[in-house]
Design a protein that fits this description.
Layout: E1 3-4, E2 11-13, E3 18-20, E4 25-30, H1 36-44, E5 53-55, E6 61-64, H2 76-86, H3 91-104, H4 120-131, E7 138-142, H5 150-165, E8 169-173, E9 186-191, E10 194-199, E11 202-206, H6 223-226, H7 235-241, E12 248-251, E13 270-276, E14 288-289, E15 295-300, H8 301-312, E16 319-326
Parallel strand pairs: 4-8, 4-9, 6-7, 7-8
Antiparallel strand pairs: 1-2, 3-12, 5-12, 9-10, 10-11, 13-15, 13-16, 14-15
Length: 327
């Protein structure tokens, strides 16, 4: 897809194609003014492409902008409750969820404060709280950590892990290269109006209609909710079949690919988890070193959800690279 602001204006983005799988954590980087925020707004549905299309966006999509519009004539509580109702919550449910999210990010004392009176840091906490009201299937974060204190930044890291563990896709931009370092399943760079897939060896060639395939994602971050069904299809298998792995698709002029069909569930007695720990992380009991780095942990299928939850919500979280079901 592409985006420009006026028929005689230059293209901000053009020829952009990508597949963002369920449960994936995706990092976007690029120079100032290069189109990162435009891309995030398009993904979140705040803006629409000038050409091409975006398909597969989950019904519940949340967005934290780079600058929160704090000058609205509402209190924090009224604003969050209203947004909760927009997301389909009841009035009472929205109020409870708003209070919970504010407390989580250390802003509970500001519930009845007008938005216009908030400091930069507190307004940013409100921005994050509104994005997490309705457990989004797509969470888009544009410099969302900026202005947060250390405790709130750590809490947002945890919320990102929880979202991907539940099968949601998280796309983020952050100026700090150490933010969630080592965790993203995919890494893109916006440059010269295009989108490059960044690999461990550096940026790959720009992705266009001829070479746009599925990123090397296995959906392992969604394993906490899938582990008792059939194993998630690998990206390689999907690419070989000519179909995306599911999730959000950004298309150019070509037709959208068909989603790969799932297979029937099979009896699973154990689950092998391949994970990479944070610096200084203590491996779980029973873990053994994995070839190429990280650890391998084999657990009974009935305990796998709990083990994955502990890994993904640890502070800082572990990165789950793969989940293999064992008969």
């Amino acid at each position: 897809m592409g985006r420009r602001y006026g028929r005689r204006r230059a293209w901000v983005l053009r020829g952009v194609e990508a597949e963002l799988a369920p449960g994936a954590l995706v990092r976007i980087e690029g120079g100032n003014g290069g189109g990162k925020s435009t891309l995030l707004r398009l993904l979140a549905g705040i803006d629409t492409p000038t050409e091409g299309r975006i398909t597969g966006r989950p019904p519940r999509t949340a967005y934290v902008p780079e600058r929160f519009p704090a000058a609205l004539p509402l209190t924090v509580e009224a604003y969050l409750t209203h947004l909760g109702r927009v997301h389909g919550l009841t009035g009472a449910g929205a109020a409870r969820r708003a209070a919970d999210r504010l407390e989580r990010f250390g802003a509970g004392a500001y519930a009845r404060t007008p938005l216009s009176e908030l400091s930069k840091g507190t307004s940013q906490k409100v921005a994050v709280a509104q994005a997490l009201l309705a457990e989004p299937g797509l969470l888009v974060l544009d410099e969302a950590w900026t202005g947060l204190d250390a405790s709130a930044r750590a809490e947002l890291d945890r919320a990102v892990a929880e979202c991907t563990a539940a099968g949601g896709t998280v796309v983020f931009v952050d100026h700090d290269p150490a933010r969630l370092a080592g965790l993203p399943d995919a890494h893109y760079r916006v440059r010269a109006g295009g989108l490059e897939a960044v690999t461990a060896d550096g940026p790959a060639s720009a992705r266009g209609p001829a070479d746009a395939g599925v990123l090397p994602l296995t959906g392992a971050r969604a394993a906490a909710v899938r582990v008792r069904g059939a194993a998630p299809p690998t990206a390689a298998a999907d690419a070989a079949a000519g179909a995306p792995a599911g999730g959000i698709a950004v298309h150019g002029d070509g037709p959208a690919g068909a989603s790969a069909a799932g297979s029937e569930g099979t009896a699973v007695s154990a689950v092998r988890i391949h994970a990479v720990g944070p610096p200084g992380g203590v491996p779980p009991q029973g873990a053994v070193p994995a070839p190429g780095g990280g650890i391998l942990l084999t657990v009974a299928a009935g305990h796998s959800d709990a083990v994955l939850r502990e890994l993904l919500t640890a502070r800082p979280p572990w990165h789950v690279r793969a989940v293999e079901e064992l008969p």
